[in-house]
Amino acid sequence: MTSASVQAMLDQLLSEDLSGITFVRDYIQLQFNPPPTINVYSKCRLVAKEATSTFGEASFPNLVIEHIGQQVVSVTLADDQLLIGFENGSFLEIPFGSGTFVGPEAFEFWGRNDKWGVWP
Q: Which residues have C-beta within 8 Å of that of residue 4, sequence separation ≥ 6?
């Protein structure tokens, strides 16, 4: 898959809002009016104006839940991380570089029209 086709697939998030979050034992699923959905197995971090929190910290669930309903305005795949920007200026960092996750993948993207991908 070319970088342009990967970006086009991830751009399915644009103009969608974060509609749901499922917390599972050691990962989260982000739902954007499914599809698309993203299963995140890495230590993602939400950077908001009022706070920053990483998956696994006590403040993370409340901070990320506050973003339900926020529209995605940017999606950037670079420097071993996926950055998802929201309309309120917050962004979610999903790292996938060496040492940032345990297991075979950092995240899975499940989009529309049978488009999907696994990183790294």
A: none
Instruction: Give me 32's structure tokens.
Output: 């954007």
Beta strand pairing call for 81-86 and 91-95: antiparallel
Long-range contacts of 19-27 (CB under 8 A, 24+ apart): 19/68, 19/69, 20/68, 21/64, 21/65, 21/68, 23/61
Q: Look up the pTM and report it.
A: 0.95
* Separation of alpha carbons 39 and 50, rounded Å: 25
Q: What is the largest CA-CA distance in the chain?
A: 38
* Strands across the sheet containing 45-47: 52-54, 45-47, 91-95, 81-86, 72-78
3-state class (DSSP) for residue 88: coil
User: Would you place residue 12 in the very low, low, confident or very high pLDDT band (cuts 50, 70, 90)?
Assistant: very high
